[in-house]
Amino acid sequence: MTSYLQLTGISKAYGDVTALSKVDLSVEKGEFVTFLGPSGSGKTTTLMIIAGFEKATTGDVLIGGHSISAMAPHERNIGIVFQNYGLFPHKTAIENVYFPLQMRDMNRANGLKKAADMLGLVGLMGLGDRYPKELSGGQQQRVALARALVFEPSLLLLDEPLGALDKNLREQMQIEIKRIQRALGVTTIFVTHDQTEAMSMSDRIVVFDAGRIQQVATPLDIYHKPEARFVAGFIGESNLIEAVVVDPDKRTASSAALGEVEFAPTEKAMQGRPVTLMIRPEHMRLSRNPIEGRRNARMTIETIVNYGDNALVIGNVGGKHGSMPMRVRVLGADVVILKEGDECSVSWMPEAVYLIAS
Amino acid sequence: MNRFLIILGIIAVVFVAAPLVIVIPMSFSNARSLQFPPPGYGWGYYEAYFTDMRWLRPTYNSLIIAAGTTVLTMILVVPATFALVRHRFAGKSIADIMLLMPLAVPHIVMAVGYYSFFGAFGLVQTHLGVILAHTCLSVPIAFLVLSANLKGFDRTLERAAQSLGASPWRTFIHITLPILKPGLIISALFAFVQSFDETVVAIFISGRNAATLPRKMFDSIRQEADPVIAVVSTLLFVLVLIGIVAPPLWAAIRARIKAPSALSTIEKRP
Fold first, then answer.
1. Best residue of A74, A117, A121, A151 to probe chain B, by most B CBs closer than 10 Å
2. Which of A172, A180, A254, B42 has its CA 20 to 30 A from that of B61?
3. Beta carbons of A104 and B165 less than 8 Å apart
């Protein structure tokens, strides 16, 4: 059983510069997959190769088992929402949505009716006669979405479509896009560098860095079980501790700043192997004195970043062999008793220490 | 300070506009030669202009030559602009410079060149000769206007069109061309006006057969100071004024009377 969309061994080189190397990916029909990574990580290049605007140096793109690599962009039947929407300024909203149907030589009356229905689905009933410049950013976004969906594309590509919107509108559009995507069941690839967007919207996340796929997993697995140091650092806040495995059976590793650290059960621990240990800030606790039953370390508070409902306390932990910054998530109600410069105890459970082979 | 600036502004405007304004009353003059203020007024010289083939012929020549120049210029400039703005190729910067050269070389130098060069081909004193020469002068101007427009063109729109199923050719017809239309019109207008106004090259190569209006005006003022010149000037001035005022006026009118389109009736159906 083959997957709906398959990328096999995609590479892209610009002269001597490798933009993508050996990208393999399978996406199931109806799935919402997010490409997440910093700029220049290869996520947009991959999207453009799927769309046909870039040619892969090696590898193949298949939809439903058939290669589309030799097709021109206009033959691929793939809907795209661009970062700046790409609405045609000389056409009204409904003419924009009608355009793909016009290109498919659909009868004008039927096409306009279908375009109007699609505008209704994205919540723009009655605004069809407006030109793009007469619409707000969020409305333009919806027109672009309607236009990319009206011709029932085999794939929907969203290229950082929410980047230009303010925070509230962005959250609203995240929910809208998910609703519409579910309603139509269209297989979707969403490109973003915003990790919260990726976490909240995706069935699966593909993390890109330096032209390679670092990990493909569900949002929860990406967060809790990162397979690469980059993934742990890029998604969410994390404390990453360089260590060397001392005893795989007792699950101990030694680090310069914290001495011997016990980690959660894993199959990746081999004696003498250099690893990265990850502890999420919300798995740590601050207290005046060490807490029994937990692993404790002394910490000097350096910075408190207050978010209202919670705060991030950044302190310094260390002994004679070295020190490292440590980030601890504290509930907003508890942060009032903390001051920068305070000495306190930071503690965690060994189960919260996740080992990443590096 | 403020009042001083206003007065300065008024002086500047008067200084710039005065020659234009003086020409208008002179065109209604009944004096035998150019004279200001006119001793009396009448329509005499307008009648003279519209009945005298010595004036109508050059007017006609100018229109034909300017129209031909515009068409030829656009045929050359549109593909050249797309190539030079969008693609990189060997010799591009040389092509760029060659295209803009006529802007830097004095017209009189070009005129002398054309006179001897076209003479060898029998193109002197022909409409075609003047059209070819004027095209060389119009190309850089039209190119500058159009390339500025094309550089500002968002290519995402073309990608969007292609992703929506438009072939490259249909993308050009449905998206690129309509969006660039204002730029193309202005570019063509500049080519037309440049040819219609051009005097130096016209004096050298238009001869008697293809004499343009500016050439005729120049000859006339040198020989007889015929007040018909004032008439022609006034007419040209009014034409340009209409050319400047009409487009925004037309846009305003169209926006006012924009009838509800067929689209809205479909969309508002329950």
1. A74
2. B42
3. yes
